[in-house]
Design a protein that fits this description.
heterodimer, A: alpha/beta, five-stranded parallel sheet, globular, B: alpha/beta, 7 strands
Amino acid sequence: MSTNPQLTSEGKLRHLLTIEGLPREVLLRILDIAESFVSVTDREVKKVPLLRGKSVFNLFFEPSTRTRTTFEIAAKRLSADVINLNVAASSQSKGESLLDTIANLSAMHADMFIVRHNQSGAAHLIAKHVQPNVHVINAGDGRHAHPTQGLLDMFTIRHYKRDFQGLKVAIVGDVLHSRVARSDINALTTLGVAEVRVIGPRTLIPNNVEKMGVRVFHDMANGLHDTDVIIMLRLQNERMNGALLPSAQEFFKYYGLTQEKLAYAKPDAIVMHPGPMNRGVEIDSSVADGTQSVILPQVTFGIAVRMAVMSLLAGGGAE
Amino acid sequence: MNAPLPDPEALIAILSDKLRDRVDEQTGIIGIRTGGVWVAERLRTALGVTPPLGTIDVSFYRDDYSKVGLHPGVKPSGIPFSVENRNILLVDDVLFTGRTTRAAINEIFDYGRPGRVWLAALVDRGGRQLPYAADAVGITLSVPDDQSIELLRSDSGQLSLSIQPRRR
């Protein structure tokens, strides 16, 4: 019996809240299904009828362009009806509680909620209160998790590297505030890469991160040495002038990915970034636009991966 | 059924004789995964045509998705030719309820509007729930509702038919 709230008692995925605790087979199944959705985009009609008649609510309590848009495209390519709610600007500001908002939207016969919230655990809370036939996908909660970003990163890595075994992967920058880093670390360790490294200044690496199964480096030369995959993290503007960092220029000097630093990695290493990028802060334009960058393919693959997650959740009816 | 099951290779020979007048180099041959693809490959050789085959996995078009979920082991579909105005030969291993045929035809139309679609099946086992008929079959068999007939392929590529109790 599973105690994972994301899984039914039969081990079927019901919600996607975090990658942590998901079995390897579930992750690989999602990546395999996504592979089939990639080819749908090459066709005359870029839609399949799986979610016909279903209503998907995009509930964004925190701004996002890329994630919200790719979820919307994914749901539309599955033939669902998509309702976008910018909640920050509506009922929440009138004082309605999160669960009241959900109850009202459920009364409008929502079949799926895509939730982004600045509080860790928001998607979990919603998942606990929805009807059994309603599914919840976490599109980023606080510093906690961003599972579909983690999955699309894994899809991208598998696409270019074919296999996870033997890979050395470095995650660079503001690991402390990054839900993407947490989801990537959980996914990479579950899928069994050879080594996961985090690289950053002491102030931006969480205490005890080694317990997640990673090696910590504070300098790029050693950290990037011999790596196959480099995942750059976004340095959030509000951190730059606080106590954690002296300045953006200083950060770029030590941790910004330039061609010189990229040369420490394997010659065929790929460079990833979840976006939006701060050019000249965490990544140099020549690298972001260079031949080793797979940043734009990540965005494209994100649609197929989100289609896979939605179609896996919504099929088969309630338990 | 106690009689031995027919040899698939003999059925493919029958099927290709029936199709010879229709299929040429311009025909788009599409196999339905998995068994239909094997039959389509054999047919192409038997008919002596060279264009690449299309393959269709109907998982995204099945009408039981909301009941049973996504079919495990879904693989990408791929049609390496333009469907628009082309004569299409759709190939399946076993024709039963007609639901797979419906799903496959729906999917083909998302690639374009074909000129015409022929349906070829290695085995027609009866039991149709939708009004589909094959243009050519290798053999018509009467298989009880509680049994399923499947085309299998060995590691060496040998095809065989097998009858088993139906799952679900």
